[in-house]
Amino acid sequence: GFYVQGAIPVKVGVPSEQIYFYDNTAVNNGGAFYVGGGNVTVTNGFLGKEGAPNIAQAGNGGAIYLNKGNITFSGGSMSYNKAQKAATGTTTGMGGAVYVNSGDITIDGGTVQKNHAERNGGAVYANGGSTTIKGGKVTYNTADIDGGAMYLNGNLTFDSGTLANNTASNNGGG
């Protein structure tokens, strides 16, 4: 995976190409990407696949952990990623695909499906900032506590797309 620290823009993929990140594991945060500040753009990226997920063990953000920045996901898919909780404490196991701390996330097309968080935010956990969905599908994600699809502490703009068949054991299945 990648570890990026500082306000460095990270661009992954180009519209005419596909790029794959799967079967990556981080002991803490961000199975495929950990970005500590800056902007991340993923175009036609495929993060995780059946039988080969990206995993944050005892951490957050199965595929991507973003601390103080922005992420744009355009096309491609984030599928089968997992955020696993630590044996003790309550601040891990969030954001099956993406965990954003104090930043904005935009999903512009593509598919975010079958991700799992052992606590909150089956697909996305966003603490602060704005979440924007423009087309695409957010489906079949699960959380063991709250927010089957998304757990948001901030603003949501849902322009178009599909948000369906997500499940949480407690509050906010969709």
Task: Describe, in plain words, how this protein is organized in 3D.
With 174 residues, the chain is an all-beta fold. The protein is 0% helix and 53% strand. The protein has no helices and 18 strands. The strands form two sheets. Strands 1, 2, 3, 5, 6, 8, 9, 11, 12, 13, 15 and 17 form a twelve-stranded parallel β-sheet that branches. A six-stranded parallel β-sheet has the order 4-7-10-14-16-18, with no helix packed on it. The radius of gyration is 14 Å and the shape is globular. 52% of the residues are buried. The mean pLDDT is 90.
**Biggest sheet descriptor:** 12 strands, parallel
Mean pLDDT: 90
Beta-strand portion reads: over 45%
Gross morphology: globular
Unreliable stretches covering 5 or more consecutive residues: none
Helix content, binned percent: under 10%
Number of discrete helical segments: 0
What is the count of β-strands?
Answer: 18
Order of helices and strands: EEEEEEEEEEEEEEEEEE
The radius of gyration is 14 Å
Distance between the termini: 29 Å
Keywords summarizing the entry:
53% strand; mainly beta; 174 residues; six-stranded parallel sheet
Summarize this structure briefly:
The protein is an all-beta fold and 174 residues long. The protein has strands spanning 2-5, 10-12, 19-21, 25-26, 33-43, 45-47, 55-56, 64-74, 77-79, 82-83, 98-101, 104-108, 111-113, 116-117, 124-139, 142-143, 150-164, 167-168.
